[in-house]
Amino acid sequence: MKTMSVRLPEALVAQIEAESRRRKLSKSDVVRERLTGGKRSRRRQPALLDAVTDIIGSVDRLPRDLSMRTKKYLNSTGYGDERIR
Q1: CB of 80 within 8 A of CB of 74?
Q2: 52-81: per-residue pLDDT in tens?
């Protein structure tokens, strides 16, 4: 591997150093992962869908076509109407 020197803002250097300490990796490894888009990541970050699969469908008594008729459903429930105080 070749060596390259770059100048980085102090805030970015602080982030890289903190991640390096937290993950117990060298700063060079962290920078390489960030430059390559994390292809060498040792810990797999869950995809967004994987993170929420356990709660999908957990709300009962909602219409099946809610995504297509959101405004109509919210109006029928009184959502957004002014409240009497």
Answers
A1: yes
A2: 777 777 677 777 788 888 888 888 888 888
CA-closest candidate to residue 30, choices 44, 48, 15, 8: 15
Q: pLDDT of 15-37, one tens digit each? A: 999 999 999 999 999 999 999 88
CA separation for the pair 55, 42 (Å, rounded) = 27
Residue 58 domain flag:
no
Structure tokens at 3: 């060596």
Tell me the pTM.
0.44
Residue 79 lies in a domain: no
CA dihedral defined by 20, 21, 26, 29, rounded to 10 degrees? -20
Backbone angles phi, psi at 25, to 5 degrees: -125, 160
CA distances from 8 to 11, 32, 40, 49 (A): 8, 14, 22, 34
- Domain ranges, residue 24: 8-43
Number of structural domains the chain divides into: 1
